[in-house]
């Protein structure tokens, strides 16, 4: 118990900030030392080392200030690895830009630009390695319970299932849901699910919050469509240990529970209407962190800005960014440049693949299939043929599955490496697709999913893409359409050029590591 208490009391964020600051400053100062040594290997008159040592210290101080302004010293677990590295890159660029500008205006000191250049490159390399090491170390500590913040969940079980699944997938986030608060005796109707039968079919208790209306009492129970229930069934079957470990309590006993368990540091409300003013005031007196977790399916994809009206916070919903002409122009320019370069540089690979497809089985080299893109417009997508010509002789569209016997030998390889998608660069160049966006579906599936999944048609507010936000999170092929739609809608509402470059970089990295394997 003592060890467990020490683990929970350990604040990794407070440990992270000084370690990151110290590591950054040391890396920059040592980078100047290494740069000075490299430049001194060639005959050249250099200022004494003391000058560059002082410059290295001044650069480190400037970098700390810039990084703090960029939010680079926020909690590491809230930043993706790409965002953290990008923050390092931007911070170093601004810092060394200031150094060079200062050297230009201070004519009395003649600094070696090579020393500064060497220092910049070495600082970027060493900072990257140090941050990777810190992230791995913090993740290792979090995954073993050190610094883990205990959380009480208040609200809908359907949202809690998604939250638990994400916390299980990413233990380095450092959160553990230890209790679940409901309202009234009917909040928890059943025991934790068993592995027999459907784990979500009437096996998980549903929060039953009744609220008065003009016509009497209205139930606030969430109803799930068949597709959503199927998705949650899959989630719940993976979460049985987490569910069984949750302590259940009535919402009226929440404050008493927190007073008896000071190790619980946060309360998350899955239904914001339960966060009443008296309850929030009581939580504030206990110094408990309160977070609101809106319903993921209906709220995660919303793009909003936080504004203030004389101290009153306002959440302003906004149009998808790609509904503005200047953003569409910028995205289209990147698409044309990227598709043109891809078609030119990969032309030898296109020729080799075409010959292999022609030799593997009789039939055309390219396979054309009707898909749906921007505003529901249909187009013909191009792929290298990977299946027999009679693959869909029955006339019923279907998904490709692992070990699909319809694939040709070379087709199995092309699908596993995603090389069959390369001809879609032509679709991108023609303007029918984009480099990044939701993957296009066939009209048959679009009609089906539009009826089953809320907001599914909103995917078509942007062009379909070669890769997307859902794909880099492992949602490709025969995976949950409901979850894929969540990620696609997040992309639609939160598009930026930076996000596109992020997705392209991650796609390239996952392709090199073989993590984009299809079937």
Would you mind describing this structure in some detail?
- The chain is an alpha/beta fold and 519 residues long.
- It has three domains: 2-143, no CATH class; 149-299, 3-Layer(aba) Sandwich (Rossmann fold), CATH 3.40.50; 323-512, no CATH class.
- The chain has 19 helices and 13 strands.
- The chain has a five-stranded parallel beta sheet with strand order 5-2-1-6-7, sandwiched between helices. A two-stranded antiparallel sheet has the order 3-4. Strands 8-9 form a two-stranded antiparallel ribbon.
- β1 (149-154), α6 (157-169) and β2 form a beta-alpha-beta unit.
- The longest helix is centred in the N-terminal third of the chain and has 31 residues, at 113-143.
- It is globular and about 75 Å long.
- It starts with a helix and ends in a 7-residue tail after the last helix.
- Mean pLDDT is 75; it is low at 1-8 and 185-241.
